[in-house]
Structure formats: structure tokens, C-alpha cells
Write a structure and sequence with these properties.
Strand content: under 5%
Distance between the termini: 31 Å
Shape: globular
Structural class: mainly alpha
Order of helices and strands: HHHHHH
Number of strands: 0
Number of helices: 6
Largest sheet: none
Radius of gyration: 14 Å
């Protein structure tokens, strides 16, 4: 799943990540597993963005964010920042300014620097 190379792999990535996202989030307590699932959502979201499906991409990014641990800005900073950054770009692209504002507030409260 980590290295989707063609359309069939993309379809498999979307299907697998969708199935994971439909599962019970609270059933996954291991932080490494949660981080891996967040990363898979990031990968799927980026693929959806590359196909200009910003609504689907935003859904993947938001699911990915939901799998982050409570202290994610300290424990998984790079992944957190990338998920929220991509979420903001998608919210902007689809014209969801309320969601963009909510995402921006979370980034401003957790990000270390904007260089």
C-alpha cells in the first residue's frame, strides 16, 4: 500500500484506506499503528489531490488527523503539519472557508514555525 504505482494500486489504496477508516477508531490504541494509518490516509489524500478530487482528499486528510494521538503536535509533528496543511489546501480549493478557518486555528495552536 505504501508504494502505489499504477491505477490498480491507487484503487487498492483507496479501498483499503476507506475500509480502515470505517473501522472503530477507538479499537486502535497503539500509537505506531495510529501513525501508520494516518500516513496511509495522507498518501491516499495526496493521490486524490493529484486527481483534483479535493473533497475526497479532504476526507482522507481529516480521517488521517483523527488517527493522530492526542499529543500529536509533539509526538508526530511532521505528519501532523502535513495532514493539516493538505487539509487546509483542500478546504480552500472546494471553497469551504469555515472548515479552512477551523483547520487554521488548529495549526496556529500547534505548529512550531512557518518557515
Amino acid at each position: 500500500l505504501r508504494t502505489a504505482k499504477n491505477d490498480n494500486d491507487d484503487s487498492l489504496l483507496f479501498t483499503a484506506v476507506n475500509q480502515i477508516n470505517r473501522g472503530n477508531l477507538s479499537a486502535i490504541s497503539d500509537s505506531n499503528h495510529r501513525s501508520m494509518i494516518a500516513s496511509l490516509n495522507l498518501q491516499a489524500g495526496k493521490k486524490a489531490m493529484s486527481m483534483s478530487d479535493f473533497g475526497l482528499a479532504l476526507s482522507f486528510f481529516e480521517h488521517g488527523s483523527s488517527f493522530l494521538c492526542q499529543n500529536h503536535w509533539n509526538d508526530d509533528y511532521d505528519l501532523s503539519l502535513e495532514l493539516f496543511d493538505c487539509s487546509a489546501k483542500c478546504a480552500y480549493a472546494i471553497g469551504d472557508h469555515m472548515r479552512l478557518g477551523e483547520i487554521s486555528k488548529q495549526v496556529l495552536s500547534g505548529a512550531r514555525s512557518f518557515g
